[in-house]
Design a protein that fits this description.
The chain has 110 residues and is an alpha+beta fold. 41% of the residues lie in helices and 27% in strands. A three-stranded antiparallel sheet has the order 1-4-5, with no helix packed on it. A three-stranded antiparallel sheet has the order 2-3-6, covered by helices on one side. It is flat, with a radius of gyration of 16 Å.
């Protein structure tokens, strides 16, 4: 986890699947997004996130994520090829990260 403030030192790093929080400032509420992983580039006054998937956390579908997790776990149990296993592991990681993002948002609303 990393926090980025204005005038942060330049940085480029990899993002894991999970929650990205954006503080728009001016007493506006924190915004939460799910990203499927990717790259973050930080410049002193600009942050760029490059990800295959970015979804507002409030728009995540918990039932769909649970079903994707179930399918990925089933695929892992039945696959033998390295590519099939790697694909199932990636799908499982993405589904778990979505569910964790949903749970974080749920806790924040309490």
């Amino acid at each position: 986890e990393i926090g980025i403030a204005p005038r942060h030192a330049p940085l480029v790093t990899r993002l894991k699947p999970g929650d990205v929080r954006v503080d728009p400032g001016q007493n506006k509420p924190m915004e939460h997004f799910y990203v499927s992983g990717g790259i973050i580039e930080v410049q002193p006054f600009k942050v760029t996130i490059m990800a295959d998937t970015g979804i507002r956390a409030a728009d995540l579908d918990e039932m769909a994520a649970q079903e994707a997790k179930r399918r990925a776990e089933e695929a892992l149990a039945n696959k033998t090829g390295q590519m099939e296993i790697a694909r199932a592991q990636a799908e499982l990681a993405e589904a778990v990260a979505q569910l964790q993002t949903i749970e974080k948002l749920r806790k924040l609303k309490k």
